[in-house]
Amino acid sequence: EADLEAARAIVEAHSVLPSFEAPGAPFDAASCMAGKRILSIPTSSAIPFVSGIEEGMVAAAEEVGFEVRTWQNQGQPTQWVQGIEYAISNGYDAVDLMAGIDPNALAPQVAAAKDAGLKVFASHHRDVTDETAEPNVDVSLPLSFSRVGEIIAAWIVTKTEGDANVLVIGSDDVPPSQPYWKSFEAKLAELCPDCKATYYNVPVAEWATKIQTTTQSALLQDPSINYLFPIYDSMSQFMLPARAITGRMDLPIASFNGTPFIIDMIRNGDVEMDVGESLGWIARSSLDAYMRDLCEVGDVPDELYIPFYIFDAANAETAGVPAELDKGYGDAHVGGFRALWGLE
Amino acid sequence: MMTSAKDPFADLKDGLPRRKPGEAPALLARKVSKIFGTTKVLDDVSLAVMPGEVHGLLGANGSGKSTFIKTLAGLHDPEPGAELIMYGEAAPLPMPAGGARRRGISFVHQNLALMPSLTVLENMLLNDLAVTQQWNIRWGKARRQVAEIFERFDIHIDPMTLVSDLPQADRALIAICRAFEEVRVTAGEGRGLLILDEPTPFLPKSGVDQLFTLVRAVVAGGASVIFVAHDIDEIREITDRATILRDGRLAGTVVSAEADHERFIELIVGERVTMFQTARGQAPDRPVTASVRKLSADVARDVTFDIREGEVLGLTGLIGSGFDRVPEAIFGALPGSEGSVEIGGKSLAVEAITPARAMAQSIAYLPADRLGKAGVGSLSIAENMALPVMGEFRSLLGMNWPKINAHVSDLGRKYDIRPNRPAQALSSLSGGNAQKVLMAKWLQTAPRLLMLDEPTQGVDVGARQKLFHAIDEASRKGTAVLVASTDAEQLAQICHRVLVFSKGRIVSELTGAAITKDSISEETLRAHAPATDQTQEVA
Amino acid sequence: MTAPDITPPAAAPRWREINWAGLAESYALVAALVVLFCIFAMLLPTTFFTWANVSTMLGSQAVLVFLTLALIIPLTTGDFDLSVAAILTISAMTIAVLNARMGVALPVAILAALCVGAIAGAANAFFILYFRIPSLIVTLGMGTFINGLTLWMSNSATIGGIDFALVMAVVGTRFLGIPLAFYYAILMAAAIWYVFGFTAMGRRLLFVGRGREVARLSGIQVDRVRFASLMASAMIAALAGVLYAGTIGAADPNSGNTFLLPAFAAAFLGATAITPGRFNPVGSVVAVYFIVIGITGLTMLGIQSFVQNLFYGGALVSAVALSQLVRKREEQQVG
Amino acid sequence: MTAPDITPPAAAPRWREINWAGLAESYALVAALVVLFCIFAMLLPTTFFTWANVSTMLGSQAVLVFLTLALIIPLTTGDFDLSVAAILTISAMTIAVLNARMGVALPVAILAALCVGAIAGAANAFFILYFRIPSLIVTLGMGTFINGLTLWMSNSATIGGIDFALVMAVVGTRFLGIPLAFYYAILMAAAIWYVFGFTAMGRRLLFVGRGREVARLSGIQVDRVRFASLMASAMIAALAGVLYAGTIGAADPNSGNTFLLPAFAAAFLGATAITPGRFNPVGSVVAVYFIVIGITGLTMLGIQSFVQNLFYGGALVSAVALSQLVRKREEQQVG
Ligand SMILES: Nc1ncnc2c1ncn2[C@@H]1O[C@H](COP(=O)(O)OP(=O)(O)OP(=O)(O)O)[C@@H](O)[C@H]1O
Ligand SMILES: Nc1ncnc2c1ncn2[C@@H]1O[C@H](COP(=O)(O)OP(=O)(O)OP(=O)(O)O)[C@@H](O)[C@H]1O
Ligand SMILES: [Mg+2]
Ligand SMILES: [Mg+2]
């Protein structure tokens, strides 16, 4: 029998505007960071989510009084290599591998950076449950994708009142996909033993050509599917036509990332919910961890401190019309981090 | 196999001619057959060439001459059972790649086998590099060698130019000189076989004479030559014996000096042919169809003439004298031309003519380059033929293909196209039949002015008469026909009037009974005689 | 395309007789499609072999059909157009930016998208025809350039919220249970089939592709024909973009580009069918649906997604290989 | 034989004179590279114009140089190889799976990767030469098929932890401050330059590409030459995969595929330089570094990433357009 109570509790916990909880002791960031430089290499500058975080980091660093620079690239590993070498030869204090670059997939360059005395940071690149060793990374800030999985499982159980048959689409070539899906599956089983979920893997490069056909086939094959869960919300757009063509416009979609156009879709009623993460928050809490490491003040977290916040029809408008990146999460983090860094 | 009862070699038991007792033939090919799809193109052909012999190979278009030669080159695999014996030694068939070269056979193929987008130097080295065991190339040495060869052959071509920048005649020179050099280098003393598949059409008369001198020199050294041509006079002049193919079968082998012109024609065609001859005399005094004024195009300079309805006007000269540029320019196919053409009461500036505009004035032009410029080999006969008349087969539902096919097969019958299958790809026809298709393509439009560039090049005697009849019929209906050709015999057969060019200018005009093969050749060469002065003047 | 009684040369002993080898060759892909369908129908009688599934398969591939049709026109005139996928993407993005973000009315936005396609086509044609650069190079470069423009226009973001009327007109409305998009694709294929087979323009395209010089000397204005074909290709690609925007109700700057290789595969696979050796719209449609049946069936069998790549690549190569066996492996000029 | 009325062609007045137009054409791309370098050097004197940056640029694009070199061999013989990027990826993945995951010794893993390349090349050649299918179709299908295999081998995941010895041999060791990878690329280019320019084999490749039929008539074993070229292409692509694995110490199933279009662009761009009209290794190297300088400079200036696409596409088209202007816009056969 489904534990609706527990599910509802999880959902509610993430439906209130996030409040700031200091991830460590306060310190004087401005003085110890003065003159320091970090080169941030995002997985690809062409992803708005990523460039949004980059902008947040650059702005926050400016407030503190040091330099964060973005290495613009188009997702080519050889460009990342060039970025790290650029950091090494131009006297940067640290490189940051942002939002999806696996430091183990650039082992030689990371080692070279370490040898040259640079710190190496990585954030938002894997799930917290992922045990892979990252020997050369000074600060690693995995994200709790598995927590997201649990939130969405709880949401679906709540909405279907314990009668869910979920179609899940993921991309195994994005490393957190498996742990994320597993935690979803586990939580679903825990909250609702009778619920069912089926997982299909579609590599990122084939989203446009395969998500739609995969979804259609799955829906036709199992008409009892009553919930769609694309694990990254940008997949949703390819599921919409599948839903339309198979005549299942009634199927709700829940997802994760808080991408603005998906929040627009929530407002329009195409998508039911989206778990969002504030980009400004990610930017600041990453910087916080990096500064703690560079300033050697201790308390370096081993997880990206980021509250997850649920957008649904009720609060979609708070993200702006049309929705904007990093809007609707309140601004608890702005003041919170400023205070923590001794800027007030 | 021999057709004649008084075969000069009938006394030889094995059917092989021998000059010296016990001497093995340079090349003995036996029972060579080749089937393409369902057509037997070569049927049990045998051929013997003695050392020091020039052996002619004749036959109508599509009779299998080139196929036989390509079999020796290793391009086609003959059907099983074929044998090849060279100087008494069995040689493998199918011929392995490079095998011909190793055995001292070298070729001038009908299409010359040059690569237009590469340099002359590279083309000269082509056959050598194709099979050499040597790993590296020393370009400096190679170039000096080629320069030396060119000097020996008295050829003035920069080895670094692209072949595509050269006129056809130069290309032929390169292919010929390459083959002669190759046979000299690769064959042993007193050995070697040089195979020339229609090398003469592109050559000026002087070039043909030079070629024959070279051929004689080669055979004097003991090597042999197989010489393919449609010009019976050439064959009779240069060859010792000649083998004639008809429909892929051996029609006979004759001693060239003993067979007369008619005998050759009979063997080629299989029956007596009445040679076409137009009624000589001035063209009927009909209105002027087109007036060409001060036309300059490429080497052609200040060309001015009129052509009347129903007139067949020949343009000739040495290759490179610019006569063949005239029709091209009139049709708007040659950029950078000047002058004017008056046709149908309208005066057109030559530089403004495009092929489409020319066609609108009912001008038609058949280029010499059959599959490069005149027709598309990979498309069917029907598609090629229907191109200029598509508009007429439009119905409410678009083009009426059954009607087009019926029309095309009627034309095929009319012009004796073999095989007459509209769906067959043009490239699968022999040269002569392809030419008939392309001629029909334009004749069906009943043009006011029909311009033909070397219309019978590579066309056999029989087919040639059919084309002449077609031209004659068109001219009787009022079409003015402009024929650019180096073939004096052909011009003499069909033209009312001939303009002879030299260095880009018209230097003489022959009309009526004054047009004979000899007079044309004479004018062509005479016009050329004071060459040095004229060169200055033109330059 | 040729009339039914025009059969390939080598295999035609007498040209009014029924040519079995020719028929086998022409309809091998159709037969393969039917066989594949039957196999999956037997394996999955309750899911695959249903009208719902069939109509879904038909309705969902209209974009790919359009893009393949866009490709075969320049392929017929002997030009490559590698920029079609980029044009599809920028066209969809133009609609999204104008309609969803700037509030421009849908018809105007669609018109603007088609204009963008026309400009891209004209730019391709300019470089190819004026500068005489091989089309492969121009369209490769142009495709990348257009991608850059798309990223710039969209700020790299997916833009949703396109007027629902477009979605209704593309996949929202059904006729005989199949979304309208399918009928658009079929109409477009039929139009091209007619033009290729039964108009003088179609002949001109073919002659230009097979022999530029011959075409020129036959009075065809070669550059004009090539210009028209490059424009047609870009415009159809832009239409594909409109359909794409209508299919997903949104536009993103990247996903459209992934259609390029499947469209090329379908164009070449389609050239082995119906009128073998020529790019033809009916063959293209058959090829697209052949592949879709395979992929859908495999997905329904729950087979891992990499198998779809294996099927895709394997089907392309082996279908063409089979068709070559029928022709006794003779080299073909495709065009 | 005399041909008294034949004067040497107009284009070459006297063939030992210096041909300025020809020189301009051959070295225009080199000049553009130098100019571009100088511009960025002036704009970014302290970051771009440093030995560290130059050596990074040289070292990090060795993979692309290799892949471009892999392409130009079949392009010279008139075949397309669209599967090179997929071969690169599966080769890198083979090393990662064998060495990092299964603990096989590095040399064995590298050997296995090269074998995989050889098998892919042989499969390409088999379908192209035995079935006489156009290379574009075969390699398009084969590329997709190989991608499927790569996804299967890797479970779609990135695999890190390749033996550091490989990294040391590729980018970890430097000579004159430049990672060894650069020298490998230069060596490979030099080898191909020698083969193309100064060996009989090189000429045979060219002859086969420029005229199959004539090549055959001249006694060249055309199929053998094409086989060799397809094998060489696959093997060099596999080597590129080894370098790629060594450059990042890991392998992923996707990123390698993104090299395909840049490599084609570099091959065609390179064919406008050094020996214009012919695919040539020196031109390819120049083209790769021309593009790399542009992209690196733009990145260092912090310019948004979409500008990289604009530069890429714009540079390709305008460089070729300029080179066509020098040649008075005459149509060229590239090969
Ligand atoms: N590759 C081929 N495939 C099919 N048929 C061919 C092929 N090559 C030649 N043929 C056919 O074989 C026959 C003989 O052709 P071939 O070229 O040997 O004739 P030919 O005697 O040289 O004629 P011509 O005097 O016109 O040069 C022709 O009917 C031709 O159409
Ligand atoms: N790939 C090539 N294709 C055509 N011609 C070439 C090629 N390479 C070089 N050449 C030409 O050959 C000429 C001589 O080249 P090379 O540098 O080998 O001269 P070399 O040193 O005198 O040669 P060698 O040492 O063999 O005497 C040059 O002028 C060059 O134009
Ligand atoms: Mg012949
Ligand atoms: Mg002939």
Automatic annotation (TrEMBL), chain B:
Q: Which domain of life is it from?
A: Bacteria
Keywords tagged on the record: ATP-binding, Nucleotide-binding, Repeat, Sugar transport, Transport
Basic and acidic residues bias (residue ranges): 8-21
Domain spans labelled ABC transporter: 27-528
Identify one Pfam family in the record: ABC_tran
Mention one GO molecular function: ATP binding
PANTHER family to which the protein is assigned, alphabetical: CARBOHYDRATE TRANSPORT ATP-BINDING PROTEIN MG119-RELATED (PTHR43790), GALACTOFURANOSE TRANSPORTER ATP-BINDING PROTEIN YTFR (PTHR43790:SF9)
**What protein is this chain from?**
Monosaccharide ABC transporter ATP-binding protein, CUT2 family
Q: Which organism is it from?
A: Poseidonocella sedimentorum
Automatic annotation (TrEMBL), chains C, D:
**Record membrane topology:** Multi-pass membrane protein
Molecular-function GO terms, alphabetical:
transmembrane transporter activity
- Transmembrane stretches in the record are 27-51, 58-76, 82-98, 105-127, 133-152, 182-206, 227-246, 258-275, 282-303
| Transport among keywords | yes
Can you say what this protein is called?
Answer: Monosaccharide ABC transporter membrane protein, CUT2 family
- Output the CDD domains linked to this UniProt entry: TM_PBP1_transp_AraH_like (cd06579)
The region annotated as signal peptide is none
Query: What do the Gene Ontology cellular component annotations say?
Result: plasma membrane
Where does it live in the cell? Cell membrane
| Organism whose genome encodes this protein | Poseidonocella sedimentorum
- What keywords are annotated for this sequence in UniProt? Cell inner membrane, Cell membrane, Membrane, Transmembrane, Transmembrane helix, Transport
The keyword Cell membrane is assigned to this record? yes
Under the heading InterPro entries, the entry gives: ABC_transp_permease
